[in-house]
Amino acid sequence: ATPTALLVGTGRGAQLGILIKGPEILESTRKVDTIVLDKTGTVTSGKMTLVDVIVEQGTVREELLRIAGALEDASEHPIAQAIAKAATQELGGLPEVESFANIEGKGVQGIVEGRAALVGRESLLSDWSQHLSVEVGRAKAAAEADGKTVVAVGWDGAARGVLVVADTVKPTSAEAIAQMKALGLTPVLLTGDNSAVAQRIAAEVGIDEVIAEVLPQEKVAVVTRLQSEGKVVAMVGDGVNDAPALAQADLGLAMGTGTDVAIEASDITLVRGDLRSAVDAIRLSRRTLGTIK
Ligand code: ADP
Ligand code: MG
């Protein structure tokens, strides 16, 4: 394609809410055959709400909410924000945290009211020999089978309960995925969340391939593996933990509603945060390059 044609293409993209970093990017867009989609904030709205609190025997609901809420108030994760918001509303305020650390892809840890607390994946708690009871574990599995995300809470050496949050699929995601398939692309759902939740969301939007329970630093390896199988990979994401994978992909697309780190690592920004714009970007490049040949 001529430089002029590519420039016209990027200009048209801007009108559609597709910001393309350089005209040459349209060339790589055209060859894409696989589109890896981050779940939270990309396929789903990422706006979670707390829907249930399940405590271990001997733990008071209010205490669980207060400690988990205080810790999560220091985290930017959508799960954390849902928990902190619900706890603030129910309790009227939250205590200060005495120390705080984010454990990428797993959860948070810190000290609240003198207690060393953890909030996150069940594996984060078991790393510290904190285990959910059989009953709470069962309730957790049931909520997950129902497509919800469940995080565990523990402090002072014991698991204290779980918090159930629910995310909703963006209203435009299923349509976007149907359009991707119509263009001959294979959508793949990639997430750090557990497989039950991932499968449920995938089924809801029509994605057949799911790669779940992937740690943030492993997301990039998934992209590399697909490339080594000969796939030309586009990746759509929004989070800090998606950035290395967005940079590694043959084409990185960031949700405009996402983090600056993801946007910087990407070739294209989808201003509206709507997955249909990813389809528009691929159509635009095919059209731009196809007509000039
Ligand atoms: P995704 O790939 O869906 O955006 P992440 O990689 O950010 O998910 O997180 C993976 C999992 O780690 C979450 O589903 C959750 O179980 C746990 N997790 C991460 N951060 C937090 C947090 N701040 N609070 C509770 N759980 C967390
Ligand atoms: Mg995300």
Automatic annotation (TrEMBL):
GO terms for cellular component: plasma membrane. It is found in: Cell membrane. Keywords: ATP-binding, Cell membrane, Membrane, Metal-binding, Nucleotide-binding, Translocase, Transmembrane, Transmembrane helix. GO terms for biological process: copper ion homeostasis. GO terms for molecular function: ATP binding; ATP hydrolysis activity; copper ion binding; P-type divalent copper transporter activity. Its main location: membrane. Belongs to the cation transport ATPase (P-type) (TC 3.A.3) family. Type IB subfamily. This is Carbonate dehydratase. The chain holds residues 382 to 674 of 730 of the full protein.
